[in-house]
């Protein structure tokens, strides 16, 4: 029998505050709803027990600065959320399930390649850790992440921006109207992965018809052309018409249709803060769609009170976005530091605001242009007025030149670069990592 896996982790011991939108009650009402409906008794539903991700699993996707040892025990809930995603992904690849729903918190899609703390309620990126572990252990090469959270998945985009073998698609409320203020059509990937990032910013008021239209006419053809081995859905539920943090108009059955269209191998819970009015019904519809059951009867108790954007208004807007996406050409700045190995290096500066803790991260990213692989990545990162840290990434399927470039940079950091006080080497080619910290004089 083809089975659908489900895994709950409400994270009772992790909260940003008793009245905060991201709190433990987010999943309790869902559990009660699924029990009451008898969904977990269906023969095709298989429940799994959460597990903890290891620090090495995290460090193959993200750099924890200034060093991993500075992170307190409060990271435990994030490690369980990430580990649970990996567990269900492994079950999918082992053939134990045909698809799965990772119902966990804390969320993760705002957490990027470098991590100095929590931002957008996220510290670890569950999907990125999942994707890189499946690639490292099972040899999966092509994976698509489709982020349907109402907020742009800027952290996931950041981690895979230079990777041609990961297609990242984000459908979200326009960043000019909502946190984190990014996710526009000009953000299409780095020099070795141009076109592998697709952002579709949608106007406030977009509802079921609009989302389904965009999926059918843009997202699904792009997925078909990429032909991924796995599809991961970052299943944020804050597009619902009752959500207090956004302005979209999706319904529970509308989410079921999104799941039916995408046919994800795994759906991983992200945002969604209408704890009683939306989450139990949206999660029910998604699970039913994954299990091949009828979800059309799932109806939330409230009626849509916001004005909805008509489909005839949305269509020309989407067509205009498509034209913009197709006409934008890559325009990168090449900059070689004196200690860089041979090759052309593209410089991409970043400034990242950590809203949860109220500080700024300044980043300078450099990627080695390469016709044969994703290219070695070198990142210098600094939290407001702190010491600099660095990340060196040797990518999956790295060519010999890029592999050697990574080793050369790593050696230089330790021996000659006095500005860098701590660093991480992500050797994705050999599924290894190394953490280094400059000794105090």
Main attributes?
2 domains, seven-stranded mixed β-sheet, Arginase, Chain A, eight-stranded parallel β-sheet, alpha/beta, 441 residues, 10 helices, 17 strands, single chain
Structure described in brief:
The protein is α/β, with parallel strands linked by helices. It has helices at 25-37, 55-59, 76-93, 126-138, 154-160, 208-226, 252-262, 279-290, 311-327, 400-415; strands spanning 4-9, 45-48, 63-64, 99-104, 114-115, 143-147, 166-173, 197-202, 230-235, 266-269, 333-334, 345-354, 359-368, 377-383, 388-394, 420-427, 432-437. Helix 7 runs parallel beside helix 8 (279-290).
Question: Care to describe what's here?
Answer:
By secondary structure, the protein is an alpha/beta fold. The chain folds into 2 domains: 4-327, Arginase, Chain A, CATH 3.40.800; 333-437. 30% of the residues lie in helices and 22% in strands. It is built from 10 helices and 17 strands. The chain has an 8-stranded parallel beta sheet with strand order 2-1-4-10-9-6-7-8, sandwiched between helices. A 7-stranded mixed beta sheet has the order 11-12-13-14-15-16-17, covered by helices on one side. Strands 3-5 form a two-stranded parallel sheet. The longest helix has 19 residues, at 208-226. It starts with a strand and ends with a strand. The model has no long low-confidence stretch (mean pLDDT 94).
CATH topology of the largest domain: Arginase, Chain A
Order of helices and strands: EHEHEHEEHEHEEHEHEHHEEEEEHEE
> What summary fits the major beta sheet?
8 strands, parallel
Low-pLDDT runs of 5+ residues are: none
């Amino acid at each position: 029998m083809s089975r659908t896996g489900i895994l709950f982790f409400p994270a009772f011991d992790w909260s940003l505050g008793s009245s905060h939108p991201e709190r433990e009650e987010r999943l309790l009402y869902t559990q009660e709803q699924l029990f009451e409906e008898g969904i977990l008794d269906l023969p095709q539903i298989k429940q799994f027990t959460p597990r903890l991700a290891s620090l090495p699993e995290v460090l193959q996707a993200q750099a924890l600065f200034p060093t991993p040892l500075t992170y307190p025990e409060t990271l435990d809930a994030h490690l369980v959320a990430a580990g649970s995603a990996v567990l269900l992904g492994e079950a999918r690849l082992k053939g134990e399930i045909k698809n799965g729903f990772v119902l966990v918190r804390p969320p993760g899609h705002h957490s990027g390649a470098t991590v100095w703390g929590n931002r957008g309620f996220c510290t670890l990126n569950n999907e990125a850790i999942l994707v890189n572990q499946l690639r490292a252990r099972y040899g999966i090469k092509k994976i698509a992440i489709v982020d349907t959270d109402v907020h742009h998945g800027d952290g996931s985009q950041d981690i895979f921006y230079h990777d041609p073998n990961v297609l990242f698609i984000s459908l979200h409320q326009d960043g000019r109207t909502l946190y984190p203020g990014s996710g526009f059509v000009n953000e299409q990937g780095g020099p070795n992965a141009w076109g592998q990032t697709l952002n579709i910013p949608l106007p406030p008021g977009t509802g079921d018809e609009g989302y389904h239209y965009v999926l059918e006419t843009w997202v699904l053809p792009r997925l078909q052309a990429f032909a991924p081995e796995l599809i991961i859905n970052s299943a944020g539920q804050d597009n619902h018409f009752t959500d207090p943090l956004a302005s979209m108009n999706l319904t529970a059955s509308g989410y079921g249709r999104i799941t039916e269209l995408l046919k994800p191998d795994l759906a991983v819970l992200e945002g969604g803060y209408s704890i009683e009015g939306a989450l139990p019904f949206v999660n029910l519809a998604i699970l039913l769609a994954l299990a091949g059951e009828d979800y059309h009867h799932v109806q939330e108790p409230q009626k849509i009170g916001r004005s909805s954007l008509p489909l005839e208004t949305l269509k020309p807007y989407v067509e205009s976005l498509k034209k913009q996406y197709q006409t934008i050409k890559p325009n990168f700045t090449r900059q070689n530091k004196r200690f860089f190995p041979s090759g052309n290096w593209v410089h991409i500066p970043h400034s990242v605001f950590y809203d949860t803790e109220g500080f700024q991260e300044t980043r300078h990213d450099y990627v080695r242009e390469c016709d044969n692989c994703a290219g070695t990545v070198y990142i210098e990162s600094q939290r407001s007025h702190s010491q600099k840290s660095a990340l060196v990434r040797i990518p999956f399927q790295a060519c010999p030149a890029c592999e050697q470039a990574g080793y050369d940079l790593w050696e230089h950091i330790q021996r000659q670069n006095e500005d860098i006080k701590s660093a991480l080497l992500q050797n994705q080619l050999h599924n290894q990592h190394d953490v280094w910290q400059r000794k105090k004089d």
